[in-house]
Amino acid sequence: MKILGVITARGGSKSIPRKNIKDLAGKPLIAFTIEAANKSGVFDRVILSTDDQEIADVTKRYGGEVPFMRPAELAEDKTPHLPVMQHAVRWLKDNEGYEPDFVAILQPTAPLRQAFHLQEAVDLLKKTGADSVVAMVEIPGHHSPYWAVKVDEQGLGTLLLSDDPIRRRIPRRQDLPKAYTHSGALYLFKTSLLDMPEPNFYGDKVAAYVMDEKFNVNLDSPSDWELAEVRIKKLREEGL
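Now predict its structure.
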């Protein structure tokens, strides 16, 4: 089973300028993802998709592969991941004859992802025979969708999931069903999904790889960066 790891890191970043190569707890942000991917041993190849030469140079220095530069039209603020991944896979096929069985999206903005997370995700893929594995974290009870409310045009609220009156919500947080959301740490999927009539990263059978909250941070703002530094320090104290 050949698995391609694709690190996606464009040059533009407005909330945290140059964040992909900005120093985080002693090394460039992107280095955390490269090192975890290489250490995991689950990838046939780990490559970078970027439009930025400086990011490419840093990636090579930390052991990542940069077989191509991403076209500028695929590196805009609102460019979704789908065409970026399609471009990467097609470039490798057309130029190197390389065709992986599965592809993983590895976003540098999830630096607390560890090598063992990637290993366990691949094990889950094999165990379940799923079309994809997506990293998830549990939604805290006070943010649970079972407590969420929708408000109609008259300003009246009802429970989002059931349309029931708010008085019928589950009163105790401890009794709420567990709910999960994407962590952004990993999307692992069959390569063939990129060429479906409706291309996607999921397929019909999705396995949820649930990560501990202490490994969950997605760097979108300066406050996220501060949180990441605090958690990295704690993880290092734990020997991770």
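The mean pLDDT is 96.
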